[in-house]
Structures are given as C-alpha cells and as structure tokens.
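Protocol step 4 of 6.
Sequence for Cysteine dioxygenase (Bosea vaviloviae) entered exactly as in the expression construct, tag removed. Do not edit the line below.
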Amino acid sequence: MRSLRTDEGTLSRDYLAAASEVLRELVAMPDLVQRLPLERKAGGYTRNLLAGNDAVSVWAIVWAAGATTCIHDHHCSCCFGVVSGTVTETAYRAIDAKRAVPTEEQERQAGYVACMLPTGPNIHRMRNLGTGDAISIHIYGFDHEAHASSIETQYTAIGG
Ligand SMILES: [Fe+2]
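Step 5 output, structure tokens:
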C-alpha cells in the first residue's frame, strides 16, 4: 500500500503508474498469490479483500469456470492484473442510460495488467470462459468501507 501514491487522488497519472507497477510485481509472483487463503465459489467469482484504506482497496478475485460479471462501468479507477488463467474482457458502448452493445472482446492472459478510468466509454464485462479457475488482482480507487463495489451502472446487452 505504501507504494500506491494516492496523495494526488486515484485518477492521477502518478497513481495509475504506481498501481500498474504494483500489479506487474504481483502477477510476476503467481505462486505467492495462489498460496493466499482465497475464497472460491463454483460457477461464480469471489472478491477477497487483501488491503484497503480510505482511498484504495486491493482485491484478489477468483473466477471459477463460467463466472461472469454484469455489464458495468466504474465510479472509480480500476487497475487489474491477471495472475493465473485467462479472463475474457468484452468492451461495450452505451446506447442509452441502461443499454449497451458489445464492441470488442479480448482474452486477458496471465501477466496482463491494465487500468480503466471511470470517465469516458469504459463499460465492460469480465468472464472466465476457461475450464479452470482464473485469479486476478484489482486495485480500485474506492474505500471498501464506504462502497460495496466499484460498479457505477449496470447495463443490459443489446445484440450479442
Ligand atoms: Fe469492472
């Protein structure tokens, strides 16, 4: 947590670079993450809080085979890295306040690190289409005691 520079908020370039660096270090140590006592749920995903303060929370998410999120955007910055397995990320474009169309799909494999900002067309869905668990680490710019999750709005898919 010390290396996450939040003094200029969790949208600043410095913060996002620091969060990405922390994630790159973590995805380079999959054995360490896999040894953590992480909660698992057949067919779904579980969020395991690893660390948090009033600005940032760090979670390990275990994606069972078939797990899927809703289609959503975020109220905060969301940096994540894939530790093991593959997470399929589909990007969407909103057509109104509640509906979105898929635009692009990418397989995020172990070692992948990215940051997503709340502003702009940043709507997505994450799924584990593989046959085994996938694990990812997420660093969100939200206080886990003030918000239940990073999700701002849920969308319904139109066409696909
Ligand atoms: Fe997300």
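Step 6, annotate. DSSP finds two helices and ten strands in the chain.
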